[in-house]
Automatic annotation (TrEMBL):
The gene is nagB. GO terms for molecular function: glucosamine-6-phosphate deaminase activity. Keywords: Carbohydrate metabolism, Hydrolase. Residues 8-232 form the Glucosamine/galactosamine-6-phosphate isomerase domain. Belongs to the glucosamine/galactosamine-6-phosphate isomerase family. NagB subfamily. The lineage of its organism: Bacteria, Pseudomonadati, Bacteroidota, Cytophagia, Cytophagales. This is Glucosamine-6-phosphate deaminase. The active site is at D68, H141, E146. Catalyzes the reversible isomerization-deamination of glucosamine 6-phosphate (GlcN6P) to form fructose 6-phosphate (Fru6P) and ammonium ion.
Amino acid sequence: EVFEGSDEASLVIAQEIADLIRSREAKNEKCILGLATGSSPIRVYAELVRMHKKEGLSFQNVVSFNLDEYYGLDKTDNQSYIHFMHYHLFDHVDILPENINVPSGKIAFEHIAEYCTQYEEKIESYGGLDFQLLGIGRTGHIGFNEPGSKISSTTRMITLDYLTRQDNAFAFNSKADVPRKAVTMGVGTILKAKRIVIMAYGMKKAEIVKKTVEGEMSTDVPATFLQTHGDVTFVMDENAAKDL
Ligand code: GLP
């Protein structure tokens, strides 16, 4: 779906999420959301906060699982994704703290594998993700599944690509300060979500959007694995769609 701009697109995505939350609430069921960070979802979260404040949208039945976190960072670091989520969404809505799940960047190296298995099991214990929101990196990553990530990959520690660290350096003092590793849900974890919405905005994303939508499926561009999913919408603005 191509929108004139990211604002229009974000309102449509926020409405879909709000509708899902309300339909689950009406049935007294939990709504299991997979959430993303980066610049792309910021306006979606702002709209959800507005709906909470102005329309009484409640997050009390929401359980959230974030895609990823930089290894070594935690809530006290402004660049951490847990900080991002509290700043843009969690601190402004009535989600229950115990229902917030963001991979920890502070697990000792020797316990990472076990921690990641538990993250997967926790998602499964709720019956899987109802909805997964995604951005896309210029390497073709979803979450932090960099090139080389397999279709069946699960939550794990990865090494960030040069381009990703460069693209994300703006949030840090310098590129050297961008962590080299991260913990991310796998491509396989993401593909198990019942519904997926992926966003890309701006000219800089045009090349990777074309590869993701029209290219051959390959571990070189992990986002291409979304082609196998039965219910995914790629939402973009005209700039990101220009080469399609
Ligand atoms: C980071 C995140 C991804 C996100 C990507 C794109 O690398 N780990 O989940 O999709 O950035 O970010 P943006 O939306 O700012 O372009």
